[in-house]
UniProtKB/TrEMBL annotation, chain A:
GO molecular function: ATP binding; ATP hydrolysis activity; branched-chain amino acid transmembrane transporter activity
GO biological process entries: L-amino acid transport
Keyword terms of this UniProt record: Amino-acid transport, ATP-binding, Nucleotide-binding, Transport
Protein name in the entry: Branched-chain amino acid transport system ATP-binding protein
One Pfam family this sequence matches: ABC_tran
PANTHER family linked: HIGH-AFFINITY BRANCHED-CHAIN AMINO ACID TRANSPORT ATP-BINDING PROTEIN LIVF
Annotated ranges, domain ABC transporter: 18-247
Cross-referenced SMART domains: AAA
Protein family per UniProt: Belongs to the ABC transporter superfamily.
Automatic annotation (TrEMBL), chain B:
Membrane-topology descriptor: Multi-pass membrane protein
Recorded superkingdom: Bacteria
Compartmental location: Cell membrane
Species assigned in the record: Bosea psychrotolerans
Lineage: Bacteria, Pseudomonadati, Pseudomonadota, Alphaproteobacteria, Hyphomicrobiales
Pfam name, any one: BPD_transp_2
The protein, known as: Amino acid/amide ABC transporter membrane protein 1 (HAAT family)
């Protein structure tokens, strides 16, 4: 519970695990992200909200080095390489991308195994796999199944499970609720909340604000590639508040 | 009129050469899957496999198995070199498929000409691996080299299947072919997988070249016809489907052999291209359906 207390109001913000300074990104000649600062504390769950096209996905992709980007990103006070996804992922910054990016023609078990591609320790591998299958029991029944033949919700669980196999220090999620039934979304968000209470730092990009607000300790509002507000979810008392920020 | 009694015998030899086309076709698929590149230097690997083995064996007196192993290793290394100095720089600049094909074709020509300078233009051959009388089935003779070709090819196909299905590296290579970005997000070194794909497919080409040389000959310029046949095998099988490519190779080998009996040897290439056109018209996605 200490971690939850630390992020409570009035207590100093936790030391950042991930901090970007002047981070910007472009696709060709299009500036998709204007230089911005963002900070994720140890054990913190930060939500990034904003309308379609605000640059939320680009922000996550820039943090990973998946798009051409400039600026500095520090992970536990060491600078992260900026255009090298494999290096960023190997440090434990793991992205569950928009559209999940599962390996559809391969089995669920193979997908999970590839999540732990950098891991050589067999007992640690077994431990992580057991943990993932406990968090998502539905995957356990489907280990031998071809991943692409599962329902959207199961695929999202697999994508998150695969990310957990990497033993992430920071988990980045790009709209995990996209296209899922409300009940499945709740199940997934509940699991994310549980992981966060255990101390995992999470950045959650969402279009459905109410879902993210329930979990987040802090919220960044993004619009047209800029951060327009940094909010405490408890200050947002009505949807009108949020709508105002969206529109401003 | 053709003599039909030759047909079974001809089918046997067609199956042998078909295995070789199949191996070359698999080589095309392995690189295509890892990178989306069609590597036309594939024929150079086939030629060098036979040529290096022949040189080490005849000129330097190495035992045949040792010469063959050294040749496969050397050609695999050359595959990595080509990936590093020809393909990688273009890939990093996001060159188009057309540029890649031209660049690898250029590499093919350079290797071919260097080989001509080093070993000359005389065709060379290797002895059969085991010098035993052919097995007779009625009027059909099955030479031991045929058994080496078929057995060796099947063993390699089985090993490859196990590699892609069971090992972490094999699975990672498949992951790269399914979704390169998602593979990188798992920390899979995508560029190292590309180098590995070149090594693997160069080794496949070299093995194909070594297996076939005792039944034919090798010369500096045998690479391109083999590359074309392997390429057709890959298309017929469904481009990007390694086992489809092997089936495609068998089909192509049989068709060519039949065409030689029925229409005469001059029409071998016509038969190969007709098979290709037939598939492009009727089933463009190939026997197993294209990978992408």
């Amino acid at each position: 519970m200490n971690l939850a207390l630390a992020s409570a109001r009035g207590v100093a913000a936790p030391a950042p695990i991930l901090a970007a300074t002047g981070l910007s990104a472009r696709y060709g000649h299009v500036q998709a992200l204007h230089p911005l600062d963002i900070r994720i504390g140890e054990g913190e769950l930060v939500a990034v909200l904003g309308p379609n096209g605000a640059g939320k996905s680009t922000l996550l992709r820039a943090l990973m080095g998946l798009v051409s980007n400039a600026g500095e990103v520090r992970f536990r006070d060491a600078p992260l390489p900026r255009q090298d996804v494999v290096a960023v992922a190997s440090r434990g910054i793991v992205l569950v991308p928009e559209g999940r990016g599962i390996f559809g023609p391969m089995s669920v078990a193979d997908n999970l195994e590839l999540g732990a591609y950098r891991l050589r320790d067999k007992s640690e591998f077994a431990r992580r796999r057991e943990r993932v299958l406990t968090l998502f029991p539905r995957l356990k029944e489907r280990l031998g199944q071809i991943a692409g033949s599962m329902s959207g919700g199961e695929q999202q669980m697999l994508a998150i499970g695969r990310a957990l196999m990497a033993g992430p220090k920071v988990l980045l999620l790009d709209e995990p609720s996209l296209g899922l039934a409300p009940r499945v979304t709740d199940e997934i968000l509940e699991t994310l909340g549980l992981l966060n209470r255990e101390g995992l730092a999470i950045v959650l990009v969402e279009q459905k604000a109410p879902l993210a607000l329930k979990l987040a300790a802090r919220v960044y509002l993004l619009s047209l590639g800029r951060i327009v507000a940094e909010l405490d979810p408890r200050d947002i008392t009505s949807h009108d508040d949020l709508a105002q920020h969206y529109l401003s | 009129m053709a003599d039909w009694s030759y047909i079974p015998q001809v089918l046997v030899s067609g199956l042998g050469i078909g295995c070789v086309y199949g191996l070359i076709g698999i080589g095309f698929c392995v690189i295509y899957n890892a990178s989306g590149i069609v590597n036309f230097a594939q024929g150079a690997f086939v030629m060098l496999g036979g040529m290096i083995t022949q040189t080490l064996f005849s000129r330097h007196g190495l035992p045949l198995p040792v010469a063959a192993l050294v040749a496969v290793a050397a050609v695999a290394a050359l595959g990595v070199v080509i990936e590093r100095i020809v393909v990688r720089p273009l890939w990093n600049r996001k060159a188009t498929m057309f540029v890649m094909i031209l660049a690898t074709l250029a590499a093919q020509i350079v290797i071919e000409r260097l080989t001509l300078i080093v070993v000359g233009d005389q065709p060379k051959t290797l002895p059969v691996f085991t010098d035993l009388p052919p097995l007779m089935f009625g009027s059909v003779a099955i030479g031991t080299q045929f058994l080496w070709i078929v057995g060796g090819s099947l063993a390699i196909v089985a090993l490859l299947a196990a590699f892609f299905a069971l090992t972490r590296t094999g699975k990672a290579m498949r992951a790269c072919s399914i979704n390169r970005e998602a593979a990188a997000l798992q920390g899979i070194p995508v560029s190292r997988m590309l180098a590995l794909a070149f090594a693997l497919s160069a080794a496949l080409g070299a093995i194909a070249g070594i297996l076939i040389t005792p039944t034919q000959y090798t010369a500096f310029n045998v690479g391109v016809p083999f590359a074309i046949s392997g390429f057709i095998a890959a298309i017929v099988g469904g481009f990007g489907r390694p086992f489809g490519a092997f089936l495609g190779g068998l089909l192509l080998g049989l068709m060519q052999a039949l065409a030689i009996v029925v229409f005469g040897a001059g029409l071998k290439t016509v038969a190969a291209l007709s098979v290709l056109l037939l598939f492009l018209f009727i089933r463009p996605s190939g026997i197993l359906g294209a990978a992408k």
